[in-house]
Amino acid sequence: MSKLKASPLKNLFESIIFVFVMHPYDVGDRCVVDGTPMLVEEMNLLTTVFLKLNNEKVYYPNAVLAAKPISNYFRSPDMGETVEFSIAFSTPASKIAHLKEKIADYLEQNPQHWALIHTVVVIEIENMNKLKMALYCNHTITFQEYREKNIRRTELSLAIKKILGGLQIDYTLLP
């Protein structure tokens, strides 16, 4: 019988420690719990109410949250972005150099969205006919602003597509 009484007290104690000592988020923060991105809607002593991206409410006991890893976008520094793309293996090195220059120019022209430090790398050779490449760069925001992050990523991807078209870089499959 003492175990039954200890459990609610233990939960209360863990919840108090979680809310007042650990305090990993505030109302309005965008967090990831169990791999699901959610917005903190309400914090109570024993529970936290989250909203999923589709506005579904999720109630978590704070004693349970205390044992879970929680990512908090709001408290994170400016966050990184990766855009992967493939080009023809036969693309001359001079065109790849121009591609890198054009990407750098795009980032420099949009300093309100992107940090200037970036890297364009070849990740691997695919099927002996494609170079799989990636652009690694940083946003000037955290992913707290999820919609803005997605808009920026879309614009960056379309800019890369436009640059590839302008340089007449493509890839074709082996016959």
Write up what this structure looks like.
- The chain has 175 residues and is an alpha+beta fold.
- It contains four helices and eight strands.
- The chain folds into two domains: 8-72, SH3 type barrels (Roll), CATH 2.30.30; 80-167, Alpha-Beta Plaits.
- The strands form two sheets. It has a five-stranded antiparallel beta sheet.
- It starts with a helix and ends in a 9-residue tail after the last helix.
- The mean pLDDT is 90.
- It comes from Arabis alpina (Alpine rock-cress).
- Keywords: Ion channel, Ion transport, Membrane, Transmembrane, Transmembrane helix, Transport.
- It is a multi-pass membrane protein.
Secondary structure elements and pairings:
Elements: H1 2-22, E1 30-33, E2 36-43, E3 47-52, E4 57-61, H2 62-65, E5 70-72, E6 80-88, H3 93-109, E7 114-126, E8 130-139, H4 146-166
Antiparallel strand pairs: 1-2, 1-5, 2-3, 3-4, 6-8, 7-8
Helix pairs in contact: 3-4
Short description:
The protein is built from four helices and eight strands, in the order αββββαββαββα. It is α+β, with helices and mostly antiparallel strands and about 180 residues long. This is Mechanosensitive ion channel MscS domain-containing protein.
